[in-house]
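step=encode ok
step=design start
structure_in=
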């Protein structure tokens, strides 16, 4: 079986916007991870009322 190959060159013109969005996404993901940790380790405080 023979495989043919081809080289394709694509000039991306909006890579900077993709990187910006990716960085923003990663920042939000880190914020959500921090909040999730806080929720997992949250302890309610209070007292019983009669």
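sequence_out=
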């Amino acid at each position: 079986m023979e495989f043919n190959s081809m080289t394709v060159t694509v000039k991306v013109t909006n890579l900077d916007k993709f990187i910006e969005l990716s960085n923003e996404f990663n920042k939000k993901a880190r914020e959500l991870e921090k909040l999730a940790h806080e929720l997992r380790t949250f302890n309610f405080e209070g007292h019983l009322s009669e």
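step=design ok
step=annotate ok -> The helical segments are 15-40.
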